[in-house]
C-alpha cells in the first residue's frame, strides 16, 4: 500500500508539472504567434497530457527558432542597407526594428536591398566608364585636376568615390565639359591647318617642306 501510495503521488506530481508546463507553453505560444503574426496553435484535445505537453513544447521551440531567424535576417539586411546607403547617399529602409518582422516585411526589405545593389552596380559601371574617358581627355588636353571633385574622380581608390546621384550628374557634366574643350580645340586646329594650307599655296611652298611640317 505504501509503495502504491508513493507511485500515485509521483504520478500526480508529474501530472501537476505537465499541466504547469502546458500552461506556460500555451502562454508563450500565444506571445510568439502574436509576434510572428501567425494564427493560434490548435492542440489535439484527445491526446494524452504527456503528448500534449511534448507537442506544445516542440511548437514553442520551432517558433522561437523562426523568431531568431527573422531577427538575424533583419539585422543582416540592415547592415547591407547601411553600407549601400553610405555609398549611394540614400535614405535607410523604413521598418519597425522593435518588433519581429513579418515574412512580407522581410521580402520587401530583400527586394529593396537587391534594387540598391543593382543601382550600385549600374552607377559603378557608369563611374568606371566615365572615369576612363575623363582621364584620357585630361591627358589629351594636358589638363591637371584642379578641383577636389576632379581629384576624387581620377584618384586610384575607386571604392572611395561616393556614388550619389549628384556625384554621377557632376561626373557626366565634367565629361561633357572636357569633350566640349576637345571639340573646340579640334575646331581651332582644323581652322589653323586650313590657313596653313592656304598660305602654302599662296607662297608656293614645295611639297617636301610641307611634308616635314605635316607630322605636327
Give the SSE layout.
Elements: H1 2-35, H2 49-88, H3 103-141, H4 148-154, H5 165-203, H6 207-214
Helix pairs in contact: 1-2, 2-3, 3-5
GO molecular function: microtubule binding
Keywords: Coiled coil
Coiled coil: 53-83
Walk me through this protein's architecture.
- With 216 residues, the chain is mostly helical.
- It has six helices and no strands.
Strand content is under 5%
Q: Give the integer mean of the pLDDT values.
A: 91
Tell me the major beta sheet: none
**Category by helix and strand content:** mainly alpha
The N- to C-terminal Cα distance equals: 122 Å
Rg measurement, Å? 37 Å
Count every beta strand, where a strand is a DSSP E run of 2 or more residues: 0
Shape: rod-shaped
The stretches of 5 or more residues where confidence is low (pLDDT under 50) are none
- Secondary-structure element order, N to C: HHHHHH
Looking at the chains present, what oligomeric state does this protein adopt?
single chain
GO molecular function: microtubule binding
Keywords: Coiled coil
Pfam families: MAP65_ASE1
Protein name: PRC1 regulator
What labels would you give this structure?
mainly alpha, 6 helices, 0% strand, rod-shaped, coiled coil, PRC1 regulator, microtubule binding
Amino acid at each position: 500500500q505504501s509503495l502504491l501510495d508513493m507511485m500515485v503521488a509521483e504520478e500526480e506530481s508529474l501530472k501537476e508539472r505537465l499541466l504547469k508546463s502546458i500552461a506556460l507553453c500555451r502562454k508563450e505560444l500565444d506571445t510568439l504567434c502574436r509576434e510572428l503574426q501567425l494564427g493560434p496553435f490548435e492542440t489535439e484535445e484527445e491526446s494524452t497530457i504527456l503528448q500534449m505537453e511534448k507537442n506544445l513544447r516542440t511548437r514553442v521551440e520551432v517558433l522561437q527558432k523562426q523568431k531568431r531567424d527573422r531577427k538575424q535576417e533583419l539585422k543582416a539586411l540592415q547592415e547591407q542597407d547601411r553600407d549601400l546607403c553610405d555609398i549611394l547617399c540614400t535614405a535607410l529602409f523604413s521598418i519597425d526594428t522593435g518588433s519581429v518582422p513579418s515574412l512580407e516585411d522581410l521580402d520587401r526589405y530583400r527586394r529593396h536591398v537587391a534594387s540598391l545593389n543593382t543601382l550600385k552596380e549600374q552607377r559603378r559601371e557608369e563611374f568606371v566608364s566615365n572615369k576612363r574617358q575623363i582621364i584620357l581627355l585630361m591627358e589629351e588636353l594636358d589638363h591637371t585636376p584642379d578641383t577636389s571633385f576632379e581629384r576624387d574622380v581620377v584618384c586610384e581608390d575607386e571604392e572611395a568615390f561616393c556614388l550619389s546621384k549628384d556625384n554621377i550628374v557632376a561626373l557626366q557634366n565634367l565629361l561633357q565639359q572636357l569633350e566640349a574643350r576637345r571639340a573646340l580645340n579640334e575646331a581651332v586646329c582644323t581652322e589653323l591647318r586650313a590657313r596653313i594650307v592656304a598660305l602654302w599655296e599662296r607662297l608656293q611652298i614645295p611639297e617636301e617642306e610641307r611634308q616635314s611640317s605635316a607630322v605636327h
